[in-house]
Amino acid sequence: MDNSKNTTFDVISNLLNETLVYDSEMDLQYHRNFISNLSGCLATVFIALISITGNISVIVASLWDETLKVQTGNILIMYLSAIDIVTSVFVMFPSAIAVACDYWPLGGHFCRAHTILNYLCSCSSSFIIAFISFDRAIAVTYPLKYHTLITTKVMLSICCLIFALSFVPALLSCLPDWFSYNYSLGVCSVSYSTINEKIFLYGVIGGATTCFYFPACLVTICNAVILIKAKKSGKSIHLLFVKRHLINPVSDPHMRKTIKTEGTDVISRTWGCGGVPSSLGREKADETSVILGENNPRL
Hints:
By secondary structure, this protein is mostly helical. The protein has ten helices and two strands, in the order αααααααββααα. It has a two-stranded antiparallel ribbon. Helix 4 packs antiparallel against helix 5. Residues about 1-30, about 270-280 and about 290-299 have low confidence and may be disordered. This is Trace amine-associated receptor 1.
């Protein structure tokens, strides 16, 4: 199979008069075979289609159901679903095409856009998951003040903050000579071989801390708070035990005495005038007899 530096098959780049962007660390002897490329392409497309279908269902349910509409925290769920859809359409599908072709056939400009969307979506997902945990921790810690503290305006501000925090590393990743097609990963990403060691060190530390370590720490702290609150709430709940003999109230002596009194009152009222009891009286008398155990020798 021709390697990825063969421009004969780069139709889009030839039409747009562009130069290809390749992974400079790629060994020309390392290439996947046709079956591997086809399998990877189909698997990526399948996962992307499932992601699109599922996340569209989440958004439709969130907008349709009246209970979910009033939940301000559900805005983050819809935002996360929208980010996953963007990832599937603009990151996974182009990646599937590149894997199938065994090189990046979509040109340099789209590789730059692919790099931006790749880092934007990945960082946004991390931040959204972190703020979902933060939202749940607030709801558990302050259940009565939650709707006052976390309003729709506050939640939309959080979404804007997430986008801003994610856009900064995404914008830095598309600087000239900073990005290329990574053959091993099948995506356009930052090419660390073209960056000097000092910038590489700052970039890795800053990007990893901002997009991954900080969200991970926030999720850990919030989940710990939720577990502590749940444990305290569990200790404050006292279980209600019922005595075994009260499961069958008729067997209780006090209840039997009350039933006998009520039954006698019904019979006396029915026969009080010396006449024939009405159908209602007969029904009450029959029910009383059954309850008193006249038809049950065990009572």
